[in-house]
Amino acid sequence: MNSFKQPTLRINQADLMCKNGCGYFSNADWDGYCSKCHRSALEKERQKKLSSKPQKMSGFTKFEEKKRQQTDKKNKLIKTPVFRKTASGRDSFRSERQPEAIHNPEADRLTVEYLKTYVLPEQVNKDFFKKISYLYSMIVTEMDNNKPIEEVAELAQKYYINYSTRLNGHPLYADIDPNVRAEMLEFFEKFVMSSAYEYIFCPPTTNDEEKDLIIQNRIRKLSWVNAYHLDCCISETSMEVRELVYTAITDLIGLDSVKAPQEKLACVVRCCQSVVEILKSCQEGPVSADEFLPALIFVVLKANPARLKSNILYITRFCNDSRLMQGEPGYYFTNLCCAVSFIENLTAESLSMNSEQFTSYMSGDSNVISTWESALFACEGMHQLTQHLSLMKDLTERTATIKSRAEELREKMQSLKDEIKSKVATVIEKNPLELKPPNELQLKTPERTHPALREDEGEQASNFYTYNLQNLSVKIDQKSKFKLDLVADQKPVEGGSGNSLTLINYDIDVSDLSNESDLTPEKRDDRCLLDMKEESPEARLPPPLEPTAHYSGFAKQGYQIPSIPCNTGNKNSDTYKNTTNNGN
Amino acid sequence: MATTVHNFKVVLLGKGCVGKTSIVLRYAEDKFNNDHLSTIQASFLNKKLNIDGKRVNLAIWDTAGQEQFHALGPLYYRSSNGAIIVYDITDEDSLVKVKSWVKELRKMLGSDVSLVIVGNKTDLEKDRHVNLEEAETYASKVGALHWQTSAKRNEGIEEMFLTLIDKMLQREREIEDLQVTRQGSNHRKNVVVVDDEQVENQTKSCCGSNT
User: Fold this and answer.
1) Would you say the ipTM is above 0.90?
2) Mutation test of the interface with chain A: which of B27, B60, B68, choosing the one with the most A Cβ atoms within 10 A?
């Protein structure tokens, strides 16, 4: 199969050409015609069919037409107006109805946008859309008749002027604000051009596509050109500058993704403004054309935007002349044209190098290790590396600050410690009554044990402590010897590493101890109480029976211990009674 | 007539480093204050003026002066109404460059373009290498105005631009009249000449009040 097919593909070049001999390549899907000839052949066929059919079948033809529109999306837009104009004699009536003829996602989107932005009388909208579809169908018809694109462009330009005078002269538009009118004219252009974009952008009647490829290849060959060659001051290694160059390149590449001429022009303006920003960050003072043009050339060379030439030609042809030649957009667009023209005609001289060097670079014999290439394109990792480096730098800076802060904190703590020490020392010096503190401490101890024992009532240990402390402070206040209390509390600081921690430990230790000491009598109490309630549990009877001798001994001891506090003593005496009862 | 805006495009041509950009910046200065100078985009400047009740919109296009960009000139000065060709009075070679520019402009745009030849850097009078008389005779020979300026000292720049605007307005009227004469009325031209003189006188006073 392959061996059979390949030769035919290779040898019979003529077979690939359009049957009509128009010089374009054909496609099997188009019955051996090129796209243009296929389209016209289809139309002819349909016209024949139509003329043979009686008029009453119009309903069916419409249906048929719809069907075809679905299958042959590309052709649907031209067919409708052309067919209507030629097939039916009611041209004027048909053209009136053409506003509905543009059915194109782009047109639909723009219609919605128009209706959202402008709230205008119904009559104005009607007229606006009528004019749009008129120009649109005109362009499409002309393009279909293989008219040179320049003629079509001239037609469009004339129509812009025509509509502009209508906007400013017609009574229908008299009530509209002049600014809105200017916007409408712009929108008019945008609408028509976006809708007819497929026909007028890079049309098959021109060699725009070839030009695109030529310039693209040329730029690719010139990839070794760097800022130094162009004698412009862009510093390729600077991070900030590179980011800006990225923005400029993105703007320039965006040129191909928008449809309306003014949108494309806006892309050019944005790109050029980024270039100005680049230059501002690279040099002092205002940016002059002497620096601007080389920088723009550099950006164009590095961006190598798709279909550059087609886009430029499209803007030149279909952007409203009055706007293109004036103001900042016009200036920037001219600069872009200049940059492209410079690239096209670039010689060794224009890069101020000898021709031998130039040819060797162009042929790729000698490679230049351009900083730009290595940093931006050839090595994306480099870019990431620099990003990471900056990140690391940021991190090290942060850790340094943390370290210094920590050191600061340590110093502060040290100073606080010293301060406290010195204060303590002064206090001790001022108050030589060192004999009293031990007395107070002795006083405190029974107070602490005393409420701890009260826990039998079922209160929590923490409550105890707060209560205890309150009691203490109150008592100290009453005695008005606050300083002495301080001495007692600060004592652990001198021994420990951190004052707060030791204080906490001190508290916890005490509480634990108290809890433990509290638990033992509690347990005993509980058991006794339970036994009381159960009155006569048989299971529990044997253990008390066995250690009767111990119990009696213990009871004697227990009797002696609770004799110190009065409250617990009573209870303990009760337990003693209980145990004796159990024993009995 | 009074409400129409006169849109003029003026290109700045000349060898690199003769002070094209400085001239634009000086001219822009009465609109922008000194502190904001660095924010001005010097390569393109749009200036709205009111001269004798006429609204003039002046778009000044700076061009790259380097030799390698010389070939791009036609793209820049296409459909421009005026051209300011700058030379450096201390650099004889820059005047040679002026001559080549003038030749090119006349060839491409004919007499539609109003030319001003400007000798810049008069503050460096002691280093003068260009004969003033020679330059002036050359300018009159090619139908261009000649001015001497100093961007550094802000001398003669405002005046230079105003005379250029006058010349462009005059040229515009001449073109309009030419169209009228073609249609048949021959008397218009004389009136125009008188008009011009009036305009010139009024312009100066008007601008004085403006600035």
Assistant:
1) no
2) B68
